[in-house]
Amino acid sequence: MLRPEVSASYQELSEDVERASENPADEREGEMEVHEDTSSVILPAVFLVYQTISDFREKLKHPVMSVSYKEVSLYDAPGIAFYPGKAQLLSCKHHYYDHIPPLINPGQPGDIECTTQRINYTDPFTNQTMKYALVVQGPRDVKKKELVFLQFHLNGTDQDFSAIDYLLFSSFQEFINSPEKAEFMKDCESSYSSWKFSGGFRTWVKMSLVKTKEEDGSETVEFKQETSVVNYIDQRTKLRSDQLFFVVFEWKDPFIQTVQDIITANPWNTIALLCGIFLALFKAADFAKLSVKWMIKIRKRHLKRKSQAMNHIN
């Protein structure tokens, strides 16, 4: 004789089989409910996976810019390349603590106490025109507010406006040590921007240095400038048609700015997150299937008992 619990298990199994054979529509309906409930669990998790991957790709495309500052007491003296044309350098001196003494005999040749180098080279953009440049060593000591003060003289010009072009490059010493100075200047002109300062004014240029680290590990250097211009009051007695140019170069502050792109997308964090999502997805899907099957089983029993009650009444 079978034990009561075993007999009850056989009876439940027989009832389920009988109910499934008598009402195949209910079985199909139950299966559809399983699929619907499983889809309701899977779809949100699939969207979360898609969103996670999309965020990771977006962070790869748009890295965050990191800016840091390094304080120095001495800069590597920059090179200042002037293109004076017909203008003549009258004087060049280094001063400190933002103090420039009054001019003595302006318009007349004075002391040139700067390290200079004259160079001729072909225009890097045309490879035909010859260019003449006067390269001057820039200031170094930012703590003592070292500056370089230069005076140029242009005897006469047939142009409506007069100006002198110049460009800055990172190291005057690299220029001096270069065996191919003409090629060095062609590369500088191709890489750096040029500026102008006008006659009849004193132009004060305050420089700052920005270094940018590229993805391949290389480093580029860029100069930023703040300029102030004041009018020169010509107190010479004779009426003259010549032009005087005055320009000052000084470091703005002792901080070198370094810019670097940082990718915030961490592939290991993303992989770990996706693994967690997939694990939760599989567990949720299995739980949903078991829960729905259990509910279908309870529903079948209820319908069976209801049918039996109706048959008994009939």
TrEMBL record:
<keyword id="KW-0472">Membrane</keyword>
<dbReference type="Pfam" id="PF15122">
    <property type="entry name" value="TMEM206"/>
</dbReference>
<dbReference type="GO" id="GO:0005254">
    <property type="term" value="F:chloride channel activity"/>
</dbReference>
<dbReference type="InterPro" id="IPR029366">
    <property type="entry name" value="TMEM206"/>
</dbReference>
<feature type="compositionally biased region" description="Basic and acidic residues">
    <location>
        <begin position="16"/>
        <end position="37"/>
    </location>
</feature>
<keyword id="KW-0869">Chloride channel</keyword>
<protein>
    <recommendedName>
        <fullName>Proton-activated chloride channel</fullName>
    </recommendedName>
</protein>
<keyword id="KW-0868">Chloride</keyword>
<keyword id="KW-1003">Cell membrane</keyword>
<keyword id="KW-0812">Transmembrane</keyword>
<keyword id="KW-1133">Transmembrane helix</keyword>
<keyword id="KW-0406">Ion transport</keyword>
<feature type="region of interest" description="Disordered">
    <location>
        <begin position="1"/>
        <end position="37"/>
    </location>
</feature>
<dbReference type="GO" id="GO:0009986">
    <property type="term" value="C:cell surface"/>
</dbReference>
<dbReference type="GO" id="GO:0034707">
    <property type="term" value="C:chloride channel complex"/>
</dbReference>
<keyword id="KW-0813">Transport</keyword>
<keyword id="KW-0407">Ion channel</keyword>
<dbReference type="GO" id="GO:0005886">
    <property type="term" value="C:plasma membrane"/>
</dbReference>
<comment type="similarity">
    <text>Belongs to the proton-activated chloride channel family.</text>
</comment>
